[in-house]
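Hey,
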Amino acid sequence: MWKLKIAEGGEDSSPYIYSTNNFVGRQTWEFDPDAGTDEERAEVDDARLQFYNNRYQVKPSGDLLWRMQFLREKKFKPTIPPVKIEDGEAITHEKTTDALRRSVHFFSALQASDGHWPAENAGPLFFLPPLVICMYITGHLNSVFPEEHRKEILRYLYYHQNEDGGWGLHIEGHSTMFSTGLSYICMRILGEGPDDGGQDNACSRARKWILDHGGVTHMPSWGKTWLSILGLFDWSGSNPMPPEFWILPSLISSYASRFVGPITPLILQLREELFIQPYNEINWKKVRHLCAKAERDPTPLHRAAKFIINSQLENGDFPQQEITGVFMKNCMLHYAAYRNIYPLWALAEYRKRVPLPSKA
């Protein structure tokens, strides 16, 4: 069972953890196979299942597991009765105070022993796979990520996979080739098979998304750099990105280094899985500027455009609305032209970027 440790570290804990302030504010997950009662383990399993079943509706974890741990360790019990404001009822000073006291009582129970409040640092989905790739290339995968850590990395990927089989740049994002390609590679490095690997066929669904969108030759430049390092992409197909050279003319290109990791049997398998044409037949210079176009649901854009169009006045102007921008706490700034500039700009971008039917 996993447990969140607070303000602990050093050689006795892990050689990879160090601190300059005696680990104050440090939060570290540690797996203890003997920790927890049967009831506590069942509670964790149920929380995971509930999250997985509702993962498309609520995508953040809400720090659920460590909050369960803290509240259980502190034997937290709410002592102030709930407060509800009925329709038509005036909000009184007493009810507001009770609501505040309930909130403070609960939030205090979440404070760690060293005084800080833990929190998950999550959202972006392109941080973890490159770390796994680096550990694989350097041969430190199993020492840095023991078995239980590898299970949780995979669980994180499964639980944030989109319905279409891909992953976005962040947990709320639409699927992109960048995150989907790296996540698929991460799962394969961690031992999942290409066809039936992963929870609910996570690997095959991801691979289908990748191939349906042109294969990893359509990954953006940052992703192509990672693929080149791993040995899944020829460096000639990856645009150089040393920042010092961005100011030079486009005809000048340079790489800091063209490092390539070991070409293992897994890398050779991935070369067969992630491209829509044989690896040795790819014209690398022609694919260096390719980038997949992920499909998005245009419904929100249609609703916004409808609102803007219907708000337009008969003479083409837009109505002046209430000032909502406040700067420096006390200065309201008003620019009358904004009500024309931004609707015009929004409609122009909408017409340019969203496919629209023509009048028959």
